[in-house]
Structures are given as C-alpha cells and as structure tokens.
Specification:
By secondary structure, this protein is an alpha/beta fold. The chain has a single domain (6-16, 57-185), classed as Rossmann fold (3-Layer(aba) Sandwich). 32% of the residues lie in helices and 16% in strands. It has helices at residues 45-48, 59-71, 84-93, 119-129, 146-155, 174-185, and strands spanning 6-9, 30-34, 40-42, 52-56, 74-77, 134-138, 161-165. Strand 6, helix 5 (146-155) and strand 7 (161-165) form a beta-alpha-beta unit. It is globular. The two termini are 12 Å apart.
C-alpha cells in the first residue's frame, strides 16, 4: 500500500500576499477583513470595518484542487489560521474543508499569540506528517530558526520533502504549482 503524500498550505504569504504594495490589491484578488470580534467581511463591507486585511484569489481553490487531483497529494492546512482557514478562507477561494495541523505552542499574553522561538510550526508539521511525503507552500521556510530547521531536515531524512517557498509580496504563482507537480512525479 502506498502512503498518500501531503500538500501543506499556509494562508499568509502563499494565499494572502500580505507583503504586496498595501495600497494596490494584486490583480485577481479580492479584499476581506477579519475583525477582532471575529467577523469576516468582503466587498464594500471590507472597507467599512477595521481589522486584518486579507487578499484572496478565488481562482486558487480550483488550481489547488486540480494540483491535488493530478498529483495524488492530500491538501492540508498548515497555517496559524488553523480551523479559521476552513471557516473563512476555504469558502472564499473554493476549497472544501481540509484537515488542519494544530499548532499548540501559543502564549496569548503576547499580541500575536505565538511563541517567539520559531519551533512551533516545524515540530507540529513533522509530527503530523510522520513518514509521509510532503510539499509545503509557505513564506517562512528560510527565515532564521536554523536549529529547528536542521532538526526538521534530520527528522525527514529519506522522506520526499519539497519546501516550496512563496514570496509574500507575490503570493502563489504558476511556477509553484509546476514545481510541486514535477516533484510529485518523482515520488510516485
């Protein structure tokens, strides 16, 4: 029996190009707002409310579903949005509900809620994936955290792994999808 590989999705960076020019929404994207009260707004309402601005491209859901179908990889959320990705992001881009990797290392006394050592995402992904092949779309693979990244690489030694870096100024591009398709063809 062949183990099905994983296609891990981060929201901020790959799907939400948060670092793009803040005064010009990227072409093909729609603006959403997530308020501190937990409400989610789009269209004209996105301008009326204060909160986290999120740009999402509704075409990405279909592209990611096609990629998963073509490669046999299972789509999984690997994002600090955790279950909100299913509640808010998935419907906005046309994805079904997906499995979610839990990131338990939080400190809600901090404004952003996440522990500053950078270990939380790498360790949770390694535990979730186990020995399954994985492709991971994220914008933070190359940001510091050298010790935990080295640990992750040792844990994954011999297991097909594609860390697909996405520039948070540009978001998900065709070349990322092509890269994952090519990589997946080598693990079948």
């Amino acid at each position: 029996m062949t183990t099905r590989g994983l296609l891990l999705l981060d929201v901020d960076g790959p799907l939400n190009p948060y670092a793009a020019n803040p005064h010009r929404r990227p072409e093909g994207y729609r603006t959403f707002r997530h308020t501190r009260r937990g409400t989610w707004h789009t269209g004209r309402d996105a301008r009326r409310y204060k909160g986290l601005r999120v740009w999402l491209n509704p075409d990405h859901g279909g592209l990611l579903r096609a990629l998963a179908d073509d490669t046999g990889l299972e789509l999984v959320w690997a994002t600090t949005w955790m279950h909100l990705a299913n509640t808010l992001v998935a419907p906005a881009i046309g994805l079904p509900e997906l499995p979610v990797i839990e990131f338990p290392e939080t400190d809600f006394d901090r404004d952003d809620g996440w522990l500053p050592d950078g270990n939380w995402k790498w360790r949770a992904v390694a535990a979730f994936a186990g020995g399954r092949p994985l492709a991971w779309l994220d914008d933070e693979h190359d940001q510091g955290h050298h010790e935990v990244r080295a640990w992750f690489d040792r844990e994954r030694e011999g297991v097909p792994t594609n860390l697909c870096h996405v520039d948070p100024r540009r978001g998900l591009r065709t070349e990322h999808l092509d890269d994952i398709r090519s990589w997946a063809a080598t693990i079948r």
